[in-house]
Each structure stands twice: as structure tokens, then as C-alpha cells.
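[agent] plan:
  1. take the single chain provided in the ticket
  2. run structure prediction with default settings
  3. attach C-alpha cells to the ticket
  4. add a short note for the reviewer (M.T.)
[agent] executing step 1
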Amino acid sequence: MNKTQHPYFQFKSFFAFILLLASYGLNAHNGTLKGMVLDAETMTGLPGAYVSINSEPAQITFTDELGIFTFVDLPNGEFRVSISYIGYSDTTLTVKVNDHETTAFKLSLLPKEINLPDVHIASEATANLHTISALDIQTRPLNNSQDILRIVPGLVIAQHAGGGKAEQIFLRGFDIDHGTDIRITADGMPVNMVSHAHGQGYADLHFLIPELVRGVDFAKGNYDAASGDFATAGHVNFNTPTALDRSMVKLEAGQFDTYRTVGAFDLLGNTAKARNQNAWLASEYSFSNSYFDNPQNFTRFNIMGKYSGLIGDNQSITASFSTFKSSWDHSGQIPQRAIADGTITRFGSIDPTEGGNTSRSNLNLVFMKNLGNRTFLKNQVYFVKYDFELYSNFTFFLEDPVNGDQIRQKESRQIIGYNGSWSKEASIGGKRLTTEAGLQIRFDEVDGVELSRTKNRRETTANLALGDVQEGNAGLYANSSLEITRRWKINLGLRSDQFFFGYVNALDSIYKHQTQLKGTFSPKLNLFFDATDALRFYANSGIGFHSNDTRVVVAQQGQQILPKAYGLEFGAMFKPVPSLLLNASVWRMDLQQEFVYVGDAAVVEPSGKTQRQGIDFSARWQVTNWLYADLDLNLTKPRAKGEPEGQNYIPLAPTSTSIGGLTAKAKNGLYGSLRYRHIGDRPANEDNSVMATGQFVVDAMLGFKKRDFDINLSVQNLLNTEFNDAQFDTKSRLKGELEPVSELHFTPGTPFFLKGSVSYFF
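[agent] step 2 finished; step 3 output follows
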């Protein structure tokens, strides 16, 4: 290969070109206007606020992560500055700028209810429209933070382990299992676990407290250069608050012996807030026996804390920690035949000793600085300590008719990582150019990754796999957006990833450290055209990837371990009237290699090339100033490539999903929501001879909130619909059966579940 053709040489050249573009136009200027936009209640910066001035020509910009914005090269005179941010009151003020001077000021915005007519399509603020869904998290019935994933349009989750294990995820025609094809982060820290004992990309969000999630950033597809491994179907980042406006205590109780308490406390008070210093501490305790015949004995304990403070006017430091521990029993998947013959009820179990325990502790340090000249620097270092132990029984007595087929999956993990980014805003010929470049480093050391056969959780009958994993990933990316004209905008991104895989098999009689190195290159190209102020067209394209399990990588000598995903999407955002926002797109994604995790064999099996294509439609309608409606509809055709017609279905890949509802918030404090979620029937095997049944489930919430208290009732499955949650076409054998039977195994969905809570704010 010629040196200039090597991906790293190409990336280096592109990186240098981006820096050259970013530096263009940094000539001497007349005057500078610098402002800081703050939340009036917490006195913390508001990132991504839309700022415009009435210069000639008119200029716009957005605040950085500290809430700072800058306009340069302004002539002497007065300028009208307009600031808007979704969920806050708009503000306009007049500021005087003098030659060769910097005029600086701070401005606080008051929070308010979302007003859809204030959202303008023909601006980059549309990139933040995902916050509309995040802002009414509080009006949706939730059991845990994993439930908040449902705000991603078209994303459906299923639970099949009593609430203790991470949920199964479905999105854009993917059965993502527990995270194989969606990148999930929390405050920038990775949630996906590489080479996990229970499956590649396993993503457990239960270490977050739902009340402490202030926003969720998400995007579908693989079009973002800052998102690397697992970001094929999409990526999601959960944000916890920099500050609390007030402290709170919450008590919750529900059916099936369900109890929960939450406390969140502002530690420094308003005097410190005025100096831009904030700290809070929160905790959560949950217990439930759930609705199964065998008590689930589910317990979870969480602690979270964060400190954030400004250093001067242009830099900040944030330090946070969290820890959680959870344990549970669960009923697992059950076969339909055992219910039909009366062996168990719908909420019974074949092996009542299934269950597990897990824990995770996080340390997270973030330093951010505005470097001047519209340049911003962010550095993040994090450390994660994680433990996991799970007992499952998928096939009952198929492999071992005497002791049964229960397995233990176990690991102990440490992660250390760094995320750094440099961003700059400049201009080329008066056209706005924004550039970001970043470095992401992550190293996982996993001790005792185990798969063993067990009996009643007590006795180990055989070790099937046991070893230590080391895996490292270094990703370098650059991302640049240029306003070609007032109507046209182009975004170009490039990403390069290098992986190190290492494995020591403890079951080998001779010590051998097996290693592999592999790299991949991921370009992105996105175009936007604002036909009018109320209509935007866009075209997104990108190449992404998902990595394979280290144990498989070294066994295959590095073959087919970073398969590419090719994505393409065309869509439009349209506001036919100010109170209605529509978004529709058609898309396609082709994968070089699909991965299927076989949990009871500790392997990830390649299943060939696949293609998915679909239509997404979303609507957001502010019916009145107190009633809000939303609808998401997603249709997908997932198929395996190279297989005969009729034999090319992808098992459990969803073909139709829909989520929607009504949310009401009255001025007297009364609020409520009525929501549904739907997933259609889908093939459970390759020839569609076995179908996984769909579901249509309605949830509801009714509450009353004043400044000092909040009382609400929530109902999951309001209509008490009988539905199957997680479903698998599995071959199993029950005790006493002479031959195995292949049929649908499932976990029953939540029946009518009433829960009430009382919160006090102070």
C-alpha cells in the first residue's frame, strides 16, 4: 500500500486541513462581544443556547458547554442580542461595542414550559430537538433509568430477568440484545461493556437514578464522527445535572411488594450558587418481589454525587462519583407447553434459582476551558469498577438431564478512559465554520470472565470458559460544519479507531497471552438544506462499526472482527403550522457481518451480511398551551443477504414499532400522561415459521405538583393486556421429556401495576 493511501496518513492530512480551515479568518478585528448564558435557578451555564445579533449581515452562534458565546470583528456601535433556548424564556437586549475592546456580560434565563411555536427549524437549534422528549421524563411511568431509553423514537425495550439484568433493546430493525448495536454513555462515560460475560456491548443503566437524569442526547444511525464502537443503529447519552435547584425526598410504593425511596440534596446552597459553585448528593433504595409466582427479592441501592465550579470566568471543573449494587432472583424464559399442560402458571418458572447480582462504581473528572477566539477545550478522565454474576437456564434439562442446564456468567472489570475534544468557531468569507477534533481512549481489564455449568447456584458442575481479557480502543476524530449559503450547510466527519485485543485462557494447561491489533476508518458526510424557515431537508451518510468479543477475535486471528456498517438516510423536518413539528425519513443500512451471541456456549457467531431499510415518522403537536401530543412510527424491512428468499429473515428483528401519547400540564399544578407503546409481530427464526407475538401496551400517570410537593399515581399496562416481553425460539427439554422440543420461550410482560409516590422539595 502506498503511504498516502494508508488510513492514518489520510486521517492526518484531513486533520491538518480541518485545522487550517478553522484558523482561517483570525485576523485583527474591531471589537468583540462576549457573553455567558446561565440558568437563573442554578446559575450554571446553558450549553447550546441560540444567540443572534443584528449585524450586517446578521450573525448567529451557539454557547459552548460553559454557556459562553463570542462575536468578533464587530464595528463600533450598538447591537441587539437575541438569545433562545428550548425550555427557557427568550431574551433580547442591546449591547454597546467599542473599537479594539471586548464587551462582556452575563445573562440568566428563567426556565419555562416547552412552547413548540418557539422552535425554529431553519437554525442549528434543531440539533437539540431531542431535548423535547427528555424534558417530560417526569411525566412517564418509570421503574429505572433504562426505561428512559424509550424516549428515543422507535426504541423498544424488553426485560427478561426480573428487572436486575440490562434490558433487551430493539431499534431500526435490530434486535440489539443488550447493546451490540447502540452506543450508550452517561455523562460521557461508556455504558456498553466490551467482551462482557453475558454478551458483547452489554449496557446496564441501572446505576443512574431516574430523577437525576436531566436530559438525553440521542441520534439514530451512524452519522456522527464523535461516536465510535457500537454506534450503528444509533447512540444515546444520559446527562445528570450540574446543580440542583432544590433538594428533594421521594417515597414510592406499589403493588407486588414494591417500595422505593429517593433523596437528592443540594449541599452548598444559594450563596455558593451565586459564586457558580455547586454540589449535590443523591441516593436511591428499591425493593420489589415483582409479579412472578416466585418472589424476586429484587433490591438495588444507588449513591450519586457531583461537584461543579467555575474557575474564573472561562473554565470549570466537575468531579462526580456514583456506586450501585443490585441483587435479584428471576424466573427466566418459560416454554408455552409448560403453561398449556398446567406444569406452571404464566408467571411461574422452570428453574426458580435463576438470578444474580451486579455492582458498578464510577469516578468522573471533567475540565473545560474557553480558550478565547471562539475556541473551547474539554478534557475528561474516568474510572469504572464493575462486577457481574448471573445465573440462567435457557434449555432446562437438554444438555444435562440429571443436574439441569443452569449456567453462571461472571466477571470483574476495571475501565480507565480519557475523552478530549478541541472545538473552534471561525468564518470563511463570512460563512460560519465550526470544527471539532477529539481523542477517545479506553482500556478494559476483565478478570475471570467465566461461563460455568452450575446447579442451584451452589454447585459448579463444569467450567466451559474462563480467562482474563484486556481490550484497548483509541479513537481519533474530526468533525467540521460549514454554512455554504444561508440555506445550505455541509457537515464532514472522519474517524480512525485502533483496537488491542488480549486474552489468557485459564483453562489451557500452558500459559499463553493471545493478542491481536486491528484498526478501522469511518468517514461521515451530512447535508442540510433549508427550503424555507419552516422546512428543512437533510441527507445523512456514514460508515460505522461494531466490535467483536475478544475471546472470538483471538480465536479467529483477527478475521472479521470490526465489520463495517454502511448507512444512508434522506429526510425532512417541517412545521406546517407553528404548533406542529413533523419529521420523516427513509433510510438503509448494510452490515458486513451480523453478530449473534450464544450465551450458553460463550461464543459470538457470525451470521453473514444483512440489510435493513425503513421509514421513520415523528410528530410533535402542542394542541394547546397545556396539552402536548407526540407520535413515533417506524417501519423496517430487515433481511439477511445471500440467503434464499423465505429463508432470509433475521430472527427477532422488529419490523414495526410505534410510541406515542398525550401529556397535559395545567397551570393549577395538575398534570398527567396517557401513553402507548407498540411492537408488531416479527419472525423468531430464519424462515418465519415461528412468530414472536407483538404487543400494544398503554401506561398512564396522574399527578398534582406545587412548588414544595408532588403527588402522583402511575399505572403500567393500564388495560391489563396479556403480552410476551422477551421472546426466543429455543430448543429445550423439560424434566421427564424423552425428546427436546423447539418452540417459543418467553418472559411474561408486566400486568396492571399501580404505583404511587409523594415528593417533597425544599
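[agent] step 4 note for reviewer: DSSP finds five helices and 45 strands in the chain.
[agent] ticket updated
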